[in-house]
């Protein structure tokens, strides 16, 4: 069965950086598109980024373009989200999920990792 475990969240000051990781198991990682999305208090779910199975194609939400970078290591079954120039409005719970298109909130996902951007 699909298992996804996020890590790397924490508290950081505005302008700081965090690198989230998503360890995958239970499926052929190299054949799966993957996404990151977040849950913001009082705002709901927001799609953040996606990466194709090979890593050749990546997409970003407008509000993270130029600040976040998604990548993956298929040899290690792990995906990353490098987050730079963090803003308070980036605070929330970040989830990785297995999927590419459609309703990402229905994709198999991990338990989430909390990101807090605050001075």
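Sequence proposed for the structure above (119 residues):
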């Amino acid at each position: 069965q699909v298992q996804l475990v996020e890590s790397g969240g924490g508290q950081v000051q505005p302008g700081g950086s965090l690198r989230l990781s998503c360890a995958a198991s239970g499926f052929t990682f190299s054949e799966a598109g993957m996404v990151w999305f977040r849950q913001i208090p009082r705002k709901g779910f927001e799609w953040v980024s996606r990466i194709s199975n090979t890593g050749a194609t990546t997409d970003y939400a407008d509000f993270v373009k130029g600040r976040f970078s998604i990548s993956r290591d298929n040899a290690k079954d792990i995906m990353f989200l490098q987050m730079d120039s963090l803003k308070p409005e980036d605070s929330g719970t970040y989830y990785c999920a297995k999927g590419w298109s459609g309703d990402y909130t229905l994709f198999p996902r991990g338990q989430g990792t909390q990101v807090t951007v605050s001075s």
